[in-house]
Amino acid sequence: TLIYTSNIFNTFTSTDTILFDQNINSLDSAHTYQIELLSNGLSVGFSPSASSIYLNSTPTDNALNLSWTENVPWSNTSYTIYKKNLSGQFDSIASSASQLYIDTNLINGQEYCYYIQSKGSYSVEGIDTNLINKSQIHCNSPIDNVAPCSPQIITLNSNCEENTLSFL
Known about the structure:
By secondary structure, this protein is mainly beta. It has no helices and 14 strands.
């Protein structure tokens, strides 16, 4: 679906390269974008498709397992995890080279909100090396879903003179 058409430019150095796609539902799925270059009204070509980051989480006892996916034609070198603080602002709490992070020491039943920001590049000379991509804001609550340790098996051996209690 066409969402934006830029102005006509005579050179590539003066082109508009930033688009903020607002008022979209990013909670239910990632969004994928592609750019078409036109010259005198004729298609010159298309960019590879690139998606927004989609953040998900799995609750466990006093922790949330964060994971995210994306489909981009560039290489991401780092991910920064942001978490909403008590004043409603987001703080950077960690960075990761992989698409996984476990936030621990949380309170079961309390909601925590996060977003992910990636940093990457195409590794091609002349193309911006500071590509930033963000996820949606995702919230979840940890829950106690970890079974307790199995009870110890107790055996009692008894005879008239001696009783022995054993734990296995």
